[in-house]
Design brief:
Blueprint (H helix, E strand, L loop, with lengths): L1 E2 L3 E6 L2 E6 L10 H17 L4 E6 L3 E3 L4 H6 L5 H19 L4 E6 L2 E3 L1 H8 L2 E5 L3 E3 L13 H6 L4 H10 L2 E3 H7 L4 E3 L4 H13 L3 H14 L4 H18 L3 H11 L18
Parallel strand pairs: 3-4, 4-6, 5-7, 6-8, 7-9, 8-11
Antiparallel strand pairs: 1-2, 2-3, 9-10
The chain binds acetyl coenzyme *A (ACO).
Length: 274
């Protein structure tokens, strides 16, 4: 376990778990937490073998968003300080969105502002039925920024995104599932098990395939179909080369022997290179 001032990192082979750790402040993200997040993302990337990154909070909160005092109120009168303080945050939000491993938000309680943003930029998200999500920015006079409006528009239907942006109302974990902000909402005592269930599936896959699958998803959302097909074909050849043709030489050979049914489960990577 790597223990920083405001964030803990647990590395367990292909799984990294990041714990936001300011429970007395509902895991509000202060400047130190933004620096710590950049550091743990460095550590995970340098490890090179991580396939799944789980982000969660210690205590009863995922994150109450940006620390309104330390990030906004206190540095506001010094434009340079305000800019630099918040740049550290914006940098790790962008990094998390483009992270090579699969990112999973395990939303264990309150998620406001930046907490919704982190939920939205993770690839997958799981929460509890009683968790509370809110874009509370309008309640203190601004619109969701730093990527929070982007996270809302890319994870919620238009009317719901605008409703929560404009009213600042909260939604429960169950509503978050209904609208698509999270994959699944479960009773609180099942959050660990549900997250582990997803993580166990991810770690069985080839890491190169996971990384390129994310790239193809993200890039092709901005393409027309012919361009997307050309792009994904090029990426498929890249995948084949980078993985030593594992999909043909290992996966499809196992199918040829009827060792498994790809419609229902994944191939065994025991005989694969990495
Ligand atoms: N920034 C700074 N401090 C915070 C934040 C925050 N975002 N959220 C909570 N805290 C502090 C509280 O002020 C309190 O501090 P104190 O003990 O020094 O008084 C402590 O954390 C505990 O919070 P409580 O309000 O006592 O906890 P409660 O369970 O009653 O309420 C809730 C939790 C609903 C999350 C409430 O704290 C709240 O509304 N927080 C602000 C949420 C918010 O609007 N975040 C900003 C989003 S916008 C953005 O991220 C850009």
């Amino acid at each position: 376990m790597m223990v920083l001032e405001t964030v803990n990192l647990e590395m367990d082979g292909p799984v990294a778990t990041i714990f936001l750790n300011r429970p007395a402040k509902k895991n509000a993200m202060n400047p130190q937490m933004h620096r710590d997040m950049n550091q743990v993302l460095d550590t995970i990337e340098e490890a090179g073998n991580v396939k799944a990154v789980v982000v969660t909070g210690i205590g009863d909160s995922f994150s109450a968003g940006m620390d309104l005092e330390e990030c906004f109120l206190q540095p506001f009168d010094d434009p340079q300080l305000f800019y630099r303080t918040n740049l550290v945050a914006l940098n790790w939000f962008k990094r998390l969105k483009a992270f090579p491993a699969v990112t999973i938000a395990k939303v264990n309680g309150f998620a406001f502002g930046g907490g919704v943003l982190v939920t939205g930029i993770c690839d997958l998200a799981v929460t509890t039925d009683t968790a509370l999500f809110g874009l509370s920015e309008i309640n203190f006079g601004i619109f969701p920024a730093g990527g929070a409006t982007w996270a809302a528009t890319h994870n919620l239907p238009r009317k719901q995104a605008l409703y929560y942006i404009l009213t600042g109302d909260t939604m429960t974990g169950q509503q978050a599932q209904e609208y698509g902000l999270v994959n699944k909402s479960v009773p609180a005592d099942q959050l660990d098990a549900e997250t582990d269930r997803i993580v166990r599936k991810i770690v069985k896959k080839n890491p190169v395939t996971l990384e390129l699958a994310k790239q193809v998803y993200e890039r092709t959302t901005m393409m027309d179909l012919p361009t997307a097909i050309d792009y994904d074909q090029a990426k498929l050849w890249e995948l084949s080369r980078l993985s030593g043709n594992e999909w043909v030489n290992v996966a499809l050979k196992q199918f040829e022997k009827r060792a498994y049914q790809p419609g229902l489960t994944t191939y065994s990577r025991a005989e694969a290179r990495s």
